[in-house]
Design brief:
This protein has about 130 residues and is mainly alpha-helical. It has one domain. The protein contains four helices and no strands.
């Protein structure tokens, strides 16, 4: 019984993270925002691919292939975004506690470039339909 009570007391003691509660909560909100972004990217890719195959208009093999590429690229980018978000979250949590936080621009730049690539694939797909 005594051991259980001492563990409970230790849980109630402030940790190194408790000094930076607001920063950790902001880090969690940022992580969740990246997850929502990944879900939206995947949803848009699914929407384009699904709409392609649901429409009654005739499709060329090129547009079929491009629709599949858009769908797969969107899912790939969504998975990539989730992985980068998880890595970023854990690194930021550690650096917040160590007071060594530096913002990372590589995730933003890389994700932005990949979203532009998928947007260009969308544009090519819609141009091929006309």
């Amino acid at each position: 019984m005594k051991n259980r009570k001492s563990k409970q007391i230790n849980k109630d003691k402030p940790t190194s993270e408790s000094k930076y509660i607001q920063q950790h909560l902001a880090n969690e909100r940022t992580y969740l925002a990246w997850l929502r972004t990944a879900i939206a990217i995947m949803g848009v890719g699914f929407l384009v691919t699904n709409m392609h195959y649901v429409t009654d208009s005739p499709h060329s093999p090129e547009t079929d292939m491009l629709a599949n590429i858009v769908g797969l690229a969107s899912v790939g980018l969504a998975i990539f975004t989730i992985v980068l978000a998880l890595i970023g979250y854990t690194k930021k949590a550690k650096s917040i506690n160590n007071q060594t936080f530096h913002s990372s621009k590589i995730t933003l730049v890389l994700t932005g470039i990949l979203v532009i690539v998928i947007a260009l694939l969308f544009a090519a797909y819609f141009l091929m339909l006309n």
